[in-house]
Design brief:
Helices cover 5% and strands 22% of the residues. The chain has a five-stranded parallel beta sheet with strand order 2-5-8-11-13, with no helix packed on it. The longest helix is centred in the C-terminal third of the chain and has 10 residues.
Length: 203
C-alpha cells in the first residue's frame, strides 16, 4: 500500500513535498487537503476524488488520471506536461498559471471550470463538456472541439484561431467579438455567428 493510500478518506491535511511518483492510488477521497510541491510524475490515479483541495506547484507530469474528480479545487502553478485525463470531472475547479500542454483528454465533465488565460494550443478536446466554463483569454488555437458542450461558456477574448468547432453546442455563448480566423464551423454555427454580427439569416 502506498503512502497516499494509508487512509481512503483524508480530510484537512497538508501534504508537502512528498514523492508519489510512479505510485498507484485507487479510490482515495481527499477533502479540504492542501498539496504543496507534491511529485506525482507518472503516477496512476484511479477513481480518486479531490474536494475543495488546494494544489500548488504540484507535478502531474506523465501522470494518468482515470475517472478522477477535482471538485471546486484551486490548482496553481502546477504542471500537467504529458498527463492523461480520462473521463475526469473538474466541476468548479480553477486553474491558475498551470502548464496544461501537451495533455491527453478523453471525455469528461469540466462544467463550470475556470480556465482563464490557460494555454491548450493544439489539444484534442473533442466531446468534452465545458458547459458554463470560464474560458476568458484562454488559448484554444488549433484545438479539436468537435462535439464539445460549450453551452453558456464565457469566450471573452478567447483565442480560437484554427480550432475545429463543428458539432459543438454553442447555446447561450456570446459570439459577438469572437475571432473566427481559420476556425472550422458547420452550417448551423455559421448562421449563429452571422446573426450575432447583425446579419439577417434567411432560408
Amino acid at each position: 500500500m502506498t503512502e497516499a493510500e494509508q487512509a481512503d478518506h483524508r480530510v484537512g491535511e497538508r501534504i508537502d513535498g512528498v514523492d508519489w511518483g510512479l505510485d498507484e492510488i485507487d479510490r482515495v477521497h481527499f477533502e479540504r487537503c492542501e498539496f504543496v510541491e507534491v511529485d506525482l510524475t507518472e503516477a496512476q490515479l484511479t477513481g480518486c476524488t479531490f474536494e475543495q483541495c488546494e494544489f500548488s506547484l504540484v507535478k502531474f507530469n506523465a501522470a494518468t488520471l482515470t475517472r478522477c474528480a477535482l471538485l471546486r479545487c484551486n490548482v496553481r502553478r502546477s504542471s500537467f506536461f504529458d498527463a492523461t485525463l480520462d473521463g475526469c470531472k473538474l466541476t468548479g475547479t480553477q486553474f491558475v498559471e498551470c502548464e496544461l500542454r501537451p495533455i491527453r483528454v478523453t471525455g469528461g465533465d469540466w462544467a463550470y471550470a475556470i480556465l482563464r488565460g490557460e494555454n491548450f494550443d493544439g489539444t484534442n478536446l473533442a466531446g468534452l463538456r465545458l458547459r458554463e466554463a470560464d474560458l476568458t483569454e484562454a488559448d484554444f488555437s488549433r484545438c479539436d472541439l468537435r462535439g464539445a458542450d460549450l453551452a453558456y461558456a464565457r469566450l471573452h477574448h478567447t483565442v480560437l484561431r484554427g480550432a475545429d468547432l463543428r458539432g459543438a453546442d454553442l447555446t447561450g455563448v456570446q459570439l459577438r467579438g469572437v475571432d473566427l480566423t481559420e476556425v472550422h464551423i458547420d452550417l448551423a454555427q455559421a448562421s449563429l455567428f452571422a446573426a450575432a454580427h447583425g446579419a439577417i439569416v434567411e432560408a
